[in-house]
Amino acid sequence: MLLAESLKFCRAETLALFTTVEDAIFCRQLHPEFSPVGWHLGHIAFTEAYWILEQLQGFKPIFSEYRQLFAADGLPKTERQKLPSFQIIEEYLQVVRDQVLDYLAIAPLEKQERLWWWLIQHETQHRETIALLLQLSRFQSGNFPKIARNSMGATSGQSSDMITIPSGEFLMGCDRVQAQDNERTTQKIYLDSYQIDTYPVTCREYQRFIEKGGYDDPNHWSKEGWQWKQKNLIIQPLYWIASEERADHPVYGVSWYEASAYAKFIGKRLPTEAEWEKAASWDAAHQQQRLYPWGEDLPDITRCNYGNPIGQTTPVNSYLEGKSAYGCQDMLGNVWEWTDSWFAPYPDFQPYPYPGYSQVYFDQQHRVLRGGSWATGMWGLRNSFRNWYHPWVRQILAGFRCAI
After folding, report:
1. I need a surface site. Which of 6, 135, 148, 179 has the fewest CB within 10 A?
2. Arithmetic mean of pLDDT, 330-354
């Protein structure tokens, strides 16, 4: 998809999220760790103007009155609730975009293309944050069905089938123009043989952990995880809905602590991000790396649940066309997947387009997630894409699969 087409398509998906958002929700801080959804919309416009119009084209700042409000380092998140209306921010977006498209027609893309793709992914990431905050708002307002404990009936076996990944080298990372700084550079990695779940852990499987007292037994938890669970009175995933209809959907709204505790409960562990990526990307028969589990073709609705058209998870075995060369399924879209790895730089890491994008999070306090969710746009979907959060965060659309 060409740049201009991608910019327009990405923006249409962003604005579509706001068709039913009330003014009170638009401005409200729905969670202390996140800014209001309206702020994210304004920040998208500010960032596009800053990098394209100011940094590339050399224009003076437009709408300079918004700099403190919408810059990432402007106001604390708690002070970002006094926002212009949706209509005013929408106009701000359009004024910026019109000038950006005018510049794109004459821009020297051979020198700038990486920044343009970074900008599209920046909007994609903030759009997903908007989607998860709207999900959280629905949950907080009681629009989710009431939790019916033990309503799922008999559970299946301990976990889904597992796939054996043979020992050997594979290529990890990505050097394509769309790759973020933390995905670079491509490197050869050797891994011993291991097994990994075919699918993410389902609600049916996780129900067994709840029923068997997994939240009450400290032996399954790390010391930090148990302290967090006790302090916050955690007894189930955040978005937990125990129903037969959702039994084969991936569990999500779980922290890294919960995912790790479940894995220990069933005698497994979380995969490292290298193990996850090899299972998703490596085509051993051709000794080559795949951009997506299925190959090089762009994501579509036959291969994964992404981009928010459904607005929810789907059963883990819904997308047979999206399996990897090894046979792993549901690796892109549906839910992000926690790994056992800390977010850290690859060899020869170079920050781009500024150190604050990735580098400041190489602090041994953020765990890596892989794969994307049902709200992730196509520009944030690829086998090498890395997400990162503190291990206690559970508002994000995250689940997991296990390994041995």
Report:
1. 148
2. 97
